Amino acid sequence: MPERRVVRYGPKVEYGCVTGALSNPSRNPRPLPQGETLSAEDHRRLIGVLESVDRAADLPEFRERLVRALQSWFGFTGVAVLHGDTLADAIREGCGVQGGYTPEFLAEYAARWAGADPLRETWAAELISGRGVVGLAEIAPDAPFLSEFLRPNGINDKAAMVVDGGPAGVLFIGMAVVDAPRVPDRDLAVLHALRRHLAPLVVDQLDRDRDRRAALSNWQLTPREWEVADLAAQGLTNRQIAERLFIGVDTVKKHLTRALAATSCASRTQLALRFAAA
Asked: What's the N-to-C CA distance of the chain in angstroms?
């Protein structure tokens, strides 16, 4: 019986030895920095939020997805996402959405506490802009807004985060903390990382939203009228719009009447068709 021959092609490969293809085939991953604050779970939460928002079709969908993602991945039961030309505009008069707050809480806030909210102050806006992420209990520990309004309503602290989109505008995110006396340091660390990764997505969404409005500038709508008209076109009732935007039902009616007139629409159905075409 003839002897079997084994033919080998190329050099024999031994793990850890230099081959002809690679100058340094040894696998030496970079070690994590000493004192790394983020765990694998934290990075999964960060990625989970990014995966939730990165394919949003437009700014309204992006905001809605971001609210739900922060509720799901971080456990923030109350979340508000606002945007404006500047941080002060976003916090005080910005457009946006919220999720998780009761109508009674929002009504009390609008009627009695909006003017006492430290996050609406100029000094707070400057502080948030500088740091990117802050906790309300850290920057205003003695504020009556915190001790007399939030905490009696079950909210121990609030995390505030800003994503600066440059000329495109600013996105502000407020998150209610109910299961800890203040925003945990670990959450602050993850939010700082999330903020950096969200920045290009926010810039893209704000730019596209601004271009869309510019293309329809003949409608002459204010940013808030845009928000109300857009939500009405999606089929939300006046009360649902009011709860979503932190405004009263009468204010919704006023903005919607103005939007219908500016777009020459006689009904919500016609308004929905106009927005779909836009």
From this structure: 81
